[in-house]
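Chain X:
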Amino acid sequence: MKGEWQMQEKEFKKLVKQVETKKLTKKERAKASGEFLDLGCGFTHYEMKQGTAPLKSEHPEDPNAKWPVVLVHGYSTPYFLYDHIFEGLVKEGYTVIRYDLLGRGLSERVKSKYAPEDFAVQLKELIDWLVPDGKCILFGTSMGGSILAAFCAMYPGIAQKIVLYAPAGMDNFKPPIYMKLAAVPVLGKRIFKLVMPKSTLARATDELLHQDEAVKDQFVRDLAFTMQYKGYLAGTHASLVNTILKTKEATKYYKKMARQHIPTLVIWGTEDKTMPIYQIDRMAKVLKDAEFVIFEGSG
């Protein structure tokens, strides 16, 4: 394990060995916090908190009314990624929903391509269940950005505002060698399953640049807990091949989203290692109406 963050080696090795050692059964789900929905696309783990502000759909003329917010996480880390944002938005009066993408967290490991369209269907079904009139603010991080672009293209009129944090999906993205290797037919999948358990956990804190060691350690433990359920590696591998690396397709979705002129805020940290900020210039050309905010020294 390299870098500034150093979990105890013994504990780290134990967490790696636990990857995909359990089945995500009904009994396991019953132990979890949060709620579950049996959607058409698969069981989905979510949490929803009602805010104090009136809903915009019910009080359209009230300046204090707010749309519900749905938080869409990225490639590997499930909904606990949004712990602070979730609670912060609730304190601001918003009704907030966060959920685990299929194949992650405690959501079902389904047989799927795990392409943007598949995740968009999951999001649509979730909104249909939980948001009465279907209109909401959407927040996507990393791969969550590609998912939101596909979602808006497939289901126009739902998103009232969009927030993207270091979004994936630009066609100028230069994937690192490990991503390219993972996409090699047959061999790539084998390499991925051998390397990724350790690599995913070791890289999990790359973006937590200003957190102390205790916070980083707990973040890795929480991620490892969800990785212990079988199907995680198949889901993340398929997502890498069919979503992260399909940048030309994703950029087309972003262009379709841009034509809807949805108020959009794009946030990027200059030190982001997963989705580097060099892509921001391309995104500015695609999302011409968007507002861009850059955080210096942030991951």
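Chain Y:
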Amino acid sequence: MDYSKLSDKEVNRKVQIASRLIGSLTGRGVLIVRDGKWEFFDPCNNPADAWPIITANKISIYAMSEADKRGGWGAEAFHPNDAYSFNDNPLRAAMIVFLMMQESANVQDNTA
């Protein structure tokens, strides 16, 4: 799937589902249940939501050179997964890598 074509809200929803968090998509964004309360979940823009996912999945984030036109930031999965993404928003790039990792894991789990 080409996650780069999705809106932040759509990426956030897919991250919420892949993370197995109880939640709901609303007109204003994704809500999850955290500590017994409904809260907005925006890992594409909120470091507090993104960082636990980034560290748990060993996703690297790095600045790109100005000459590289793919985006200001890159994100990459830890070996052996070769998922990577470039975007002007480093958290969005990392969340796309997370989704690519989940997709890759599902493909591996479904091969017989």
